[in-house]
Amino acid sequence: MAPISSLWSRVPQPERRLAEASRTRVLVVEDDLLVGAVAAEALEEAGFTVLSAASAEEANVILAEEAPDVLFTDINLGGWMGASSPNRPSRHSPDLP
């Protein structure tokens, strides 16, 4: 049987997850300011670094300059509708989840 200390070291520790989250930059794009603020606050409380934009145009500037790790957006946000839209986020960051 493995010693308890070796088993414990394999259990995810909240401090480790928080440290990993704090290095992850999330771009929250939401044109409803209340929804955007709530989402940003929840992500910040979870330890993420949050960038915010209230429009597709504003988000495109941030995407080009800041290179966030994750995009959290309103699926019906004006300016990013459809895969053929010239303003779609993948134009700047094709691998952005």
Automatic annotation (TrEMBL):
Transmembrane segments: none annotated. SUPFAM superfamilies: CheY-like. This is Response regulator. The keyword Transmembrane does not apply. The lineage of its organism: Bacteria, Pseudomonadati, Pseudomonadota, Alphaproteobacteria, Hyphomicrobiales. The modification 4-aspartylphosphate is found at residue 74. Residues 25-97 form the Response regulatory domain. Signal peptide: none annotated. Gene3D superfamilies: 3.40.50.2300. PROSITE patterns: RESPONSE_REGULATORY. Keywords: Phosphoprotein. InterPro entries: CheY-like_superfamily (IPR011006), Sig_transdc_resp-reg_receiver (IPR001789).
